[in-house]
Amino acid sequence: MTPRILIVRLGALGDVVHAIPVAASLRRAFPQARIDWLVSAKHREILDLVPAIDRRLVINDRGDASGGASLAGAVRELRRGRYDVAIDLQGLIKSALLARASGAPRVLGFSSRYARERAARLFYTEAHDPGRGGLYDPRETRHVVDINLGLLTLLGITAARAEFPIDDPPSDAARIVRDRTGGRYALLNPGAAWPNKRWPPERLAAVAIDLRGRHGLTSVVLWGPGEEALASAVASAAPDAAFVSPPTTVADLVALARGSALMVSGDTGPTHVATAVGTPVVGIYGPTRPARNGPLSPLDITISRDALCQCHHLRRCRLDRMCLLDIDVADVIAAVDRRLAAEPHRV
What we know:
single chain, alpha/beta, six-stranded parallel beta sheet, 12 strands
């Protein structure tokens, strides 16, 4: 009988990207399986590019105009799926409840130490405990992708690896950027949902000036909803070296990242998209740990004040000065030089 598998990971963008290797490993282990994914309407775009998935079940869990089924409608659709297994990769009470509501006889998730909300464990029939103290414990130094893949041992999959099957979409935004730069550009991303993940725009502008002057790369400044002013601040401070990206969808972001020589960014969704498609990355990290959330390539470089940060995994800094401000322009320029030198054919 063809197994029917449900993945539950509602958001956010970077977390959805980090869960894609689970779908890829399931497809490799069970080629004939039906693999569906329940995702928030806000974050379904990236999954449209993942061929390992059969169906994307979209829920409007925010009550806004982003589309998708209501909670009751999503549960009805899940029930119709007649899943054999539901896998909750989010670890929230909400996501665990949705996995259980699917009616799957096996509902898999993480132990209470590794769930984002400990009570989520109550809804699983089986739980995986990665065994190093907890999800946010400083002793846990494995990447979240590897932690996610570890859950598949409950299905007998022990050799899972980090694969990101993402299609190469057409993109008008990428074509505009290629035409304007001659195809030689870097991506700078000043935005992030958490204020304490945002490196100052004037410092990114200084990096853009250096990229243009010494490497001949024009910087394209990315922006998402509510971030255009941040992008404009970077471009205005580096008028001959950087310009603001056209408006972008997630598909545009994938195409732009694939054509880029480099991305410089904090810990945010576009960074993880770039990492997934193989873009060289220099990451600027503050309240989150690169070992857990950083790029996966051994060639990528992260600059972090993790050892000094007193606000790990908090959206706002509790101190007068966030640790990200201790990372200066010279640190990032030196990291950019090392990263570009590691793959000179991309420049």
